[in-house]
Amino acid sequence: ERMAENQAEKRSRRGLLGFVFGRRGLWSKKCTADNGNKTPMRSSNASAPCTSNIQFTKSPGNELNSKKLQEYKVSPEPIQNQNQTQIQRPISKPLSNQYPNNNPGPVQQQARKVVPRESIGLSGELESMIMDNQKAKGMMFGNLGNLKQPGTTAVGNQTTVQNSGYGRKTMEGERQTPVRPISVSNNQDQSGSLCRAISTRMDPETLKIMGNEDYKNGNFVEALALYDAAIAIDPKKAAYRSNKSAALTALGRILEAVFECREAIRMEPHYHRAHHRLANLYLRLGEVENSIYHIKRSGPEADQEDILKAKTVQMHLNKCTEAKRLRDWNNLIKETKNTIASGADAATQVYALQAEAFLKSYRHQEADDALSRCPVFDVEMNTKYYGPIGYAGFLVVWAQVHMSLGRFGEAVEAIQLAAKLDRNNREVSMVLRRVQAVTAARSKGNDFFKTGRFQEASAAYGEGLDHDSRNSVLLCNRAACLFKMGQFDRAIGDSTAALSVRPAYAKARLRRADCNAKLGNWELAVGDYEILRKETPEDDQVIRGLMEAQNHLVKRRGHENL
To answer: Which domain of life is it from (predicted)?
Structure first.
């Protein structure tokens, strides 16, 4: 049986597009926290596959350290100070559809006593651990799980992460985009409830029930901490691992959730809900074969619709493979969108493939937009899950997107990491040399420009364009040099080329508008200034340029009517 699992896992690693589709996954059903009740399995099927080579970077969300919690586990001796005031926190009765057997046990009736003074040290230490954990993260993350991302759009219980906060510094000191922090979940006082729970000697089942309450109420950080506390006391209970996986999924920490589900299944190979939860996670990651494997072992938790979703994702993945083989970039863009929409919404390699197709089509802004929707995990987690070669392939695409938009520092960082992970990859070596050459040319040109040597600066930017002919920042910088030298027609050509790959590039549009104004092309100048006015209504330079161009246009039309 274990051999069958390993074969299924190996088959999943081999196929579609090498590094791009080395792993598969599906649309996650809404998960509910387990109450530890598992439906017995009719057949003696083997446990789920537990692959070892999968992941990216360590997720910024640091859970409570299980070993440390174990060290602070308190023995169940009675509380000494009987004069302390007693406080009760009623535990609400679980919903029948959330806890299948509706039998949480007598622990629900249990009253909670105030911690005696001699126990304050434990509670304070645990509270400090939780607060340090939240401060380390600094923010909450949505279901696509990107830690420390610069912007999010909330949709229901999910948060779509927008990677738009990269700072950019170009030749003329382009304004840096600030990174917007993501608001932290409310009910932060729940961390104190965890401390009180531990300090009053609650057993792990009580902690699990408290975690289920927080999960049900959307307090996923608090639920995760409670499940961690239960695991620290009883690390061999599969239900705690499965529930922790649900909380991690809700926080967008998909790869960590996979590992917790695997551990739950290792402990209890016939755990239907854990199999079903893992099947959904694999489907979201685009790993269809693994998803189907676990769907078939989910017992009554799964239905025929789950299989149909998995097969739909597989169909679109196959079309992606064929489109890339034919170098049909437009069709590849279409099919990657269909793959994501049909359920593989956390499949990092599918987003990378989509971005690559946009780059090949010289649609650089859209390539960046595609990767901004991609879930971002830390390097350690990505490398662990996807393997160093798989993650290196993703970094190659990221480096090219960074470079195309002038984020040269990020491009160098990404491709150097890829080179460390996959030293013998020829594509990595080629992209590394190109990124280094373009970055060096840009720095050289900037130095010349700052000293007023515009001819040399223009030549330096041209050297960089020899390696990356559609680089929007180098084109715009060379246009600035040409403008300074009075070569307005050539400057318009470079500005237009930059806008063709990056339509929202305001600096290139302003450069073109100024050049057209110098040449007396007032209609064209007004058109660009009006677009800029909508985007930056308080920019004085744009306002002055627009007013001047409009006045000249009115005068010209007046003379023509005489």
So the answer is: Eukaryota
The four Cα atoms 344, 345, 346, 348 give a dihedral, to 10 degrees, of: 80
Residues 6+ apart with CB under 8 A from 315: none
DSSP state of 108: G
Q: Across all residues in the chain, what is the average pLDDT?
A: 74
Tokens linked to 509:
């549009």
Residue 452, class by beta-carbon neighbours within 10 Å (0-12 exposed, 13-18 middle, 19+ buried)?
A: exposed
Q: E strand or H helix at 153, and its extent?
A: strand 152-155
497-501, long-range: CB within 8 Å, 24+ apart, which pairs?
Answer: 497/470, 498/472, 498/473, 499/472, 500/362, 500/470, 501/362, 501/363, 501/364, 501/365, 501/404, 501/470, 501/472
Q: Which two tokens stand for residue 240?
A: 């705690």
The dihedral sign for the CA sequence 45, 51, 56, 61: positive
In 3D space, the residue among 282, 198, 204 whose CA is nearest the CA of residue 243 turns out to be 204
Residue 257: which residues within 8 A CB-CB, separation 6 or more? 245, 246, 248, 249, 277, 281
How many whole angstroms separate alpha carbon 71 and alpha carbon 52?
28
**Residue 537: how many CA atoms within 13 Å on its side-chain side?**
1
On the CB side of 18, CA atoms within 13 Å amount to 11
Q: Taking Cα atoms as reference points, which of 172, 153, 173 lies closest to residue 164?
A: 153
Name which residue leads in pLDDT, 238 or 163: 238
Helix (H) or strand (E) holding 504: none
Q: What is the pLDDT of residue 560?
A: 60
Task: Output the pLDDT for position 342.
Answer: 96
pLDDT digits (tens, 9 = 90+) for 387-397: 999 999 999 99
What is each CA distance from 302 to 274, 294, 306, in whole angstroms?
Answer: 11, 9, 6
Residues with Cβ within 8 Å of residue 219, at least 6 apart in sequence: 185, 187, 190
On the question of pLDDT at 561 being above 70, the answer is: no
**DSSP output for 53-97:** S-EEE--S-PPPPHHHHHHTPPP-PPPS-TTSPEE--PPPPPPTT
- Determine the Cα–Cα distance for residues 406 and 465; give it in Å rounded to an integer: 12
**What is the rounded CA–CA span in Å between residue 191 and residue 123?**
10
Residue 84 CA to residue 187 CA, distance in Å, equals: 27
Strands (E), 412-504: none
Q: Beta strands 55-57 and 86-87: pairing type?
A: unpaired
Q: Are strands 112-113 and 86-87 parallel, antiparallel or unpaired?
A: antiparallel
Give the least confident one: 43-52, 196-205, 354-363.
Answer: 43-52
Q: Of the spans 21-25, 137-141, 474-478, which averages the highest pLDDT?
A: 474-478
User: What's the CA gap between 479 and 494, in Å, rounded?
Assistant: 6
Residue 400 vs residues 368, 371, 438: alpha-carbon distances, Å? 10, 12, 11
pLDDT for the residue 230? 93
Beta-ladder partners of 158: 155
